[in-house]
Design brief:
Elements: H1 4-12, E1 41-43, H2 45-53, E2 62-65, H3 67-77, E3 83-85, H4 88-94, E4 104-107, H5 116-120, E5 126-131, H6 136-148, E6 153-157, H7 166-172, E7 181-184, H8 187-196, E8 200-204, E9 210-211, H9 212-215, E10 221-226, H10 234-238, E11 242-245, H11 257-270
Parallel strand pairs: 2-3, 5-6, 5-10, 6-7, 8-10, 8-11, 9-11
Antiparallel strand pairs: 1-4, 2-4
Helix pairs in contact: 6-7, 6-11
């Protein structure tokens, strides 16, 4: 479900204030492109089952399933009014090209994001903030790692983040519905709000002087990750309490951002007691 700000953006062509150094994107306008919209669909067994089990979701609009998948789904969830049984190729034709659906697809409203106040309430554990990480596979893998290591949530920017559906949700293997997320206009301002709530921001930067292990101290932490090409933007980095690096002992220059997130979350988990780790909110 779109936020009221997003709906107004599409109607008016309003451009929100950019971070310093951020390039303006196209104005969003009303109207829809032809063909299946990946933002409206989830596909794959784990993604669909997690969405159906999530009480924060609205009822599904359509469920496309092969006969075997429909039988298994109804065994777990009972009768589903939106169910349509069809052959695998017919499901594929209803989805964007290349969707690996595993015989199951779901058309449903997007999850409503939390506010910064909601996702940061209680100041405990770890949050992830993504600065212009735009690849759906990477973001999906980050959600999956966030679920595995008990992160409190993921914070995204509204203009430079992919929708939490389609290939992203498939890569997340159900984690989109297990890990809360917030969507904000300005990451720097969000870090200021979180700081006031008791959070400490640690930005990952390959050129930092200290290691991530040295930077972590067990306090409530926001791990801030930038894009693989440009890293953290200057203003976002300046709003971090400390910048840290993952030591590359093999001498290779960098690693995939989703791999960096998994390593960083593991390092954070080592600094926390089991009571600190929140697996479900």
């Amino acid at each position: 479900m779109s936020s009221s700000r997003e709906r107004n953006d599409r109607k008016t062509g309003f451009r929100p204030k950019l971070e310093k150094g951020e390039k303006p994107g196209p104005v969003r306008v009303s109207g829809r492109s032809s063909g299946p919209d990946p933002k409206e669909w989830l596909w794959g067994v784990h993604a669909v089952e997690a969405a159906l089990a999530n009480p924060r979701r609205l009822p599904p609009r359509r469920i496309l399933a092969t006969a075997d998948r429909a039988k298994a789904l109804q065994k777990g969830f009972g009768p589903l009014a939106a169910m349509e049984i069809m052959e695998g190729p017919d499901i594929a034709r209803a989805l964007p090209a290349g969707a690996i659906h595993q015989g199951l697809a779901l058309k449903i409203e997007a999850l409503e994001p939390l506010s910064i106040d909601e996702i940061g309430e209680g100041a405990a554990g770890v949050l992830l903030m993504l600065d212009q990480v735009t690849d759906p596979q990477n973001v999906g893998a980050i959600f999956r790692s966030a679920a595995a290591f008990g992160a409190r949530g993921v914070i995204l920017q509204d203009r430079n983040s992919p929708g939490l559906a389609g290939a992203l949700a498939k890569a997340a293997a159900g984690a989109v519905d297990r890990v809360p997320h917030a969507v904000v206009v300005n990451l720097s301002r969000a870090l200021e709000q979180l700081a006031d709530m008791g959070w400490r921001a640690v930005g990952l930067d390959g050129a930092a002087q200290i290691s991530l292990e040295q930077a972590l101290d067990g306090r409530p932490t926001v791990l801030v990750l930038g894009s693989e090409g440009d890293g953290l933007r200057r203003l976002v980095a300046e709003h971090c309490d400390v910048l840290a690096k993952i030591p590359m002992l093999g001498g290779f220059e960098s690693i995939n951002v989703s791999n960096a997130a998994a390593i960083a979350l593991y390092e954070c988990a080592r600094c926390r007691t089991p009571a600190d780790i929140v697996t479900e909110l």
